[in-house]
Design a protein that fits this description.
- The chain is mainly alpha-helical.
- Helix 7 runs antiparallel to helix 8 and helix 18 packs parallel to helix 20.
- Belongs to the PPR family. P subfamily.
Amino acid sequence: MSFHLCSSPSSLLHDPNLFSVHPKPTPRTFVSSYNPNSPPFHSRNLLQTIHVSIQEAIPQETHIEKPKLDAASKRNAWVNPKSPRASQLRRNSYDSRYSSLVKLAESLDACAPNEADVSDVITKFGSNLFEQDAVVTLNNMTNPETAPLVLINLLETVKPSREVILYNVTMKVLRKSKDLDKAEKLFDEMLQRGVKPDNATFTTLISCARQCGLPKRAVEWFEKMPSFGCEPDNVTLAAMIDAYGRAGNVEMALSLYDRARTEKWRIDAVTFSTLIRIYGYSGNYDGCLNIYEEMNSLGVKPNLVIYNRLLDSMGKAKRPWQAKIIHKDLISNGFEPNWSTYAALVRAYGRARYGDDALVIYREMKEKGLELTVILYNTLLSMCADIGYVDEAFEIFQDMKSCGTCEPDSWTFSSLITVYSCCGRVAEAEAALLEMREAGFEPTLFVLTSVIQCYGKAKQVDDVVRTFDQVLELGIEPDDRFCGCLLNVMTQTPREEIGKLIECVEKAKPKLGHVVKMLVQDESCEEGVLKKEASELIDSIGFDVKKAYLNCLIDLCVNLNKLEKACEILQLGMECDIYSSLQSKSATQWSLHLKSLSLGAALTALHVWMNDLTEAALTSGEEFPPLLGINTGHGKHKYSDKGLAAVVESHLKELNAPFHEAPDKVGWFLTTSVAAKEWLESRRSSGEVSA
């Protein structure tokens, strides 16, 4: 909000009588134009207006080149006020006085904060001070200790016509030093003296509270305005978007923002930054980007804080591609990334498992000598564990230990052990576990789950059993993930040793143990019994592990060559919508989607689809579309050289199926309807019943 307190020294003093030969100037009444009920300034007013914003301090001095006084100005001679020389004389005379008032302000800033010293400095000024002089003097002060004493002295000696103006300028001095407590105390003194606050009073207090980082106090002062008959203008209201947002009143902040857009208020970068933070905290990440676009359209230049908040929001949204775009904008607009920028990028790329991008940022931080926190190190290590960057994880861990600014914590060791466990590096995992204990951290269930996984990959079944017994001895209750890990280890264990693991599973989760025994036993059970028992098991576990359990159960069936039971479990997954949209049909193509399946589950789904195609084409006489396709995705398993595509391709070749990898669609294997029908007919005639 802009309101008027005092004059700018560059265009002052248009009263011709001030330059007459009379030895004593006549005092004049000061009129402030920020009161809408007051008359506007005329050319005879001593001071023109200076704009005081709640965002910016009033300039202490405007430096201008002052012309030298000529001889005529030194003589006591009458000068025609309409002559060009009169204008020059007016300027020269007040510039000299303004400079004297600035020096007076400096002396008052430097004197001891007591009434006697303040009075002595003002008395030694050697000239009567008028109301306008008092405003200029206070406006140029910076000392919050002496300013209130100067105010008291000037109120008594000058006896201004509008005391509120001097109070407002004094509050501005306190705002410069971010002393809200003194400003609020001064407000109370105003009321005790019977001085009514005006809009300028409240906007100064509001801006002071914002600068002090006290948005709730800013809100309190804003909400007091109506009780004193004050109505905020658009700039103040725009500033309150930031204050309400920081104070936690999101509804009010957004309501003001909607009004700001409708009424086209001018909104500063600080307020836009708060709006981005509000949308980020609420999870409305599109809202963050919309604010950013609106800033650009309005010509408001983002600052580094805004860029960092956008990067942080995109990290939480797991939109690393948008974080990349924002990072490029930041650089192209001439900003130098700071620690917060790099930290937001590490989190954004790390959470989204953009391994190469995260490591580039990490190494750039190291090159610039920027220190990483434990959280950032752990973010990188967790990412490495998830995407199989074993050597990089070891490098980061060694750097963390040698950096001297932070120490590995329990989560650090957990991630490192997970990295080694997923690739079956038993010696390294055991060494990390020992180091974890020596550092004073007891292994958690998550860590012991990773250790069991490591032993399972290495096919050290006895060590799996030993670690399982340790979990029970520590009094830790196995959870769904732990039992799922045991189930996964079974899929990698030779048949003759599976019994050892079944005993563990029965102790940890009896229902799972029962289903596994039904799968492993050679004799077939009554129709529907296996599906019923498996359904009850799936209903008893968390949603986040349901697919993993089904994948492992099917893999176990495939490993034991029990395809019929595998198909039954797959059917259960489809009925429960755990395996959704495995098959799709359109007028031009029928497809099988295997991307989210384990190897055993994918081969089972392929077998079921082949049988469905046979039924459709050869039994029901249904017409095929021009193309049939199998989508495996194009990635490989993070801890294995084998990808799903390679396994499926190998299996299709064993079946002599006419599916071939599409050159323009990675991860797709396609065939024509004619080739598919010919192959299905030959397969039926040869007596093949399974894929």
